[in-house]
Amino acid sequence: MPSVRVPRALHPVAWWLWALGLATAVSRTTNPLVLLLVLAVLGLVIANRRSDAPWARAFRYYLWLALVVVAIRVVFRSIFVVGVAPTDHLLFTLPRAALPQWYAGVHLGGPVSLEAVLSAGVDGMRLGTMLCCIGAANTLANPKRALRVLPGALYELGVAVTVALSVAPQLAESVQRVRRARRLRAGTGRGVRALRGIAIPVLEDAFERSLRLAAAMDSRGYGRTGTAPRHTRRVTAVFMLGGLLALCAGMFGLLDAEAPGYLGVVALATGGTLCTVGLAVGGRRVQRTSYRPDQWSIAEWLVAGSGVLCAALVGLAASLDPAGLDTSFSPLQWPTLPLIAVLGVLLSASAALTAPPPVRHPVITTRSVRPAATERVAA
Amino acid sequence: MTRRAGRAALATIGALSAAVAIPVTPAAAAPTHVAVTISGHGSVCFAWHSGMTGDDLLNAVASVQYRQDGLIVQIDGTPASAKADNTHYWSYWHDTSGTWQYSSVGAGSYVLQPGAVDGWSYDDGASSAPRPGQDPSGLYAAICAGRDPVARSSAPAPPHRTTTTTRAPRRTSTGRAGGPAPSVQSASSAGVRSPGGSGTSAGPATPTAVGTTGPARASAARTRTSSGVASSTAAPHVLAAAPTAPGAPADTHSALTRPVTPSRSAAPAVLGLVLALLLAGGGGWAALRRRRA
Predict the structure, then answer these.
(1) What is the three-state SS of chain A?
(2) Is B272 close to A120, i.e. CB distance below 8 A?
């Protein structure tokens, strides 16, 4: 007997871990086949497991952003021509313009080869795919519930971001309302001239709304600094600042090849501990209860685990067979299919099955009323 | 009789002047080639054309792999990993008046002049890049003497060049002692020796591919053997042996061989595309089902 799975929302941290694992895997490779597979997996999981909330419909904008990134890279590579070998297939030639010698003699224009366009395109596709991974996490995980996992010390920051996230759809709704009112009053002007007529009422509306929200939050006790004495707050601030500085130094040490060894990992570890201590000390003063916390069960383990496993397998493939993951386009040849990396990406697609089905609210639109939907609502 | 004698005298005078004139090559002629030496892979002489950059020259003589941003990561298969960072990279040098100078401009922007010598050496972990192994003085002549006559005449010390012919010293009974051999062309007719050509032959006693061996040359060989010419380091046995340029492998006339990369089949790419299409199709089907429901 098939068991019906109860629709529920997966813990947002599980979706974020899955998406970050995929993004880490993408950052290790420039193989266009692997990148296409990751995009296909993202599309599959989103189509199967996204809810109907407004923030869950924004994935196509991330795809457009990825396309813009690819276009910018290709255009820049075509203008600043470097490394054109004689064996390249030339597409067309841009007129040459040499910048003066005191500008390091940079040359603009020149022959645009197919190899250069392809390599720039694949490089842009890698960045675009990473952006799409983050976009997928935003689409699948409720942002407001994701902010609940912030530590207590960052509580006020979390509240501010939650309010900001609620404002954007309210702003869109406000703009629509003002435009409808203008049409009813036969508002004149189109385009830029109409902007003033729309912007001012919308801004006024937003200001009024935020004042009302602030008053409501204040009456419920938000925004109080709590019972922590002054020296505790100072100690917290010192720990956090020191930890952040050490983290910066550690990142610099890791990225710079000539920095001394102690600067890299040691500074990172010191910074990490200092930040953790600061967050712990600062979180003690904030007492909050959580209402209906998200559960972390088997499905969360499977989804997060598939993302982490994908990152691990692609990392393994990168160390075993780096040539398969890094395609070079001169000479022009077909890309290979690195088996371990592809296996990792396909495993991450299991999230489409292991995650619980999303909670669906039947939507009644004014244009087309479907009888099945109305029946469900009435029942 | 007088006419014949006169004609013979004229002929000898003409031949003498020709023989004198020929070794004296005008030193002010412009070079027509450029040379490049790649550490560990040899040196090549290449014909120069206007607007040629260091990058053009390198691609003409070796197979080069570039990174996405245009950095050279591999020349002729070195290094095998085709990776570069700030301590493992190919460094670009110019032979400027007898010394190696680190190039301040990239290979794609550096426009070569005829007679220039480029050097490429791989920095394998050292904090500063090593100079190319060749001794930079007289390097253009050393590399391009076989192709460029100007190089030959202007070459200072190194006397032996690569050549496709090897010459064995011969011994004949006939021979005209005195007067070292004409060093350059065999345009001088076979029977003529020019005693006046001694000065110029102190230069490179370079056997050329053009040179024919004939009985007349036998004497030249013998005289070369016997006379300790300024090109003393060019001992006769060097001519017979395979000549080696300083530090370079034997054959530097032909361009460095390009490794032929076997072309890959499109099957893995097609398989990958099919997989991606399947997954995307699954997503599209789910979206369609959602819209209908």
Answers:
(1) CCCCCCCCCCCHHHHHHHHHHHHHHHHCCCCHHHHHHHHHHHHHHHHHHCCCCHHHHCHHHHHHHHHHHHHHHHHHHHHCCCCCCCCCCEEEEEEEEECCHHHCCCEEEEEEEHHHHHHHHHHHHHHHHHHHHHHHHHHHCCHHHHHHHCCHHHHHHHHHHHHHHHHHHHHHHHHHHHHHHHHHCCCCCCCHHHHHHHHHHHHHHHHHHHHHHHHHHHHCCCCCCCCCCHHHHHHHHHHHHHHHHHHHHHHHHHHCCCCCHHHHHHHHHHHHHHHHHHHHHHHCCCCCCCCCCCCCCHHHHHHHHHHHHHHHHHHHHHHHCHHHHCCCCCCCCCCCCCHHHHHHHHHHCCHHHHCCCCCCCCCCCCCCCCHHHHHHHHC
(2) no
- Chain B residues with CB under 8 Å of A374 CB are none
Contact B279 A342 (CB under 8 A): no
Work out the burial of residue A182: count CB atoms within 10 Å of its CB; fewer than 13 is exposed, 13-18 middle, 19 or more buried: middle
Q: Give the gap in angstroms from C-alpha B291 to the nearest C-alpha of chain A.
A: 11
pLDDT in tens, B38-54: 888 888 888 888 878 88
Average pLDDT taken over every residue of chain B:
65
**Radius of gyration, CA atoms only, chain B:** 28
Nearest to A334 among B66, B86, B266 (CB): B266
Q: How far away is chain A from the Cα of B69, in angstroms, using its nearest Cα?
A: 7
Mean pLDDT value of segment B259-277 = 82
Tell me the C-alpha distance between A141 and A16, whole Å. 7
ipTM above 0.95, yes or no: no
Q: Give the confidence band of B17 by pLDDT, cuts at 50, 70, 90.
A: low
Task: Provide the pLDDT confidence category of residue A152 given band limits of 50, 70 and 90.
Answer: confident
pTM for the full predicted model: 0.61
For an interface test with A, the pick among B68, B85, B104 (most A C-beta atoms closer than 10 Å) comes out as: B68
Which residues of A lie closer than 8 Å to B, measured between beta carbons? Answer: 30, 33-34, 36-37, 39-41, 43-48, 82-87, 105-107, 119-120, 123, 257-258, 322-323, 328, 330-331, 333-337, 342, 346, 349, 352
At B184-209, the pLDDT tens digits run 343 334 333 434 334 333 333 333 33
More confident residue, B57 or B228: B57
- Chain A residue with minimal CA distance to B65? A330
Average pLDDT, stretch B104-110? 78
- Mutation target to probe the B interface, by most B beta carbons within 10 A, among A36, A343, A375 is A36
**Any A CB within 8 A of B260 CB:** no
Residue A362: is its pLDDT beyond 70? no
| Predicted confidence (pLDDT) at residue A313 exceeds the cutoff of 90 | yes
> Does B269 contact A322 at a Cβ distance shorter than 8 Å?
no
The answer to whether the Cβ–Cβ distance between A33 and B269 falls below 8 Å is: yes
Nearest CA in chain B to A34: B272
pLDDT cut 70: percent of chain B above it: 53
Q: Are the beta carbons of A331 and B82 separated by less than 8 Å?
A: no
Most confident of the following: A165-174, B136-145, B175-184 = B136-145
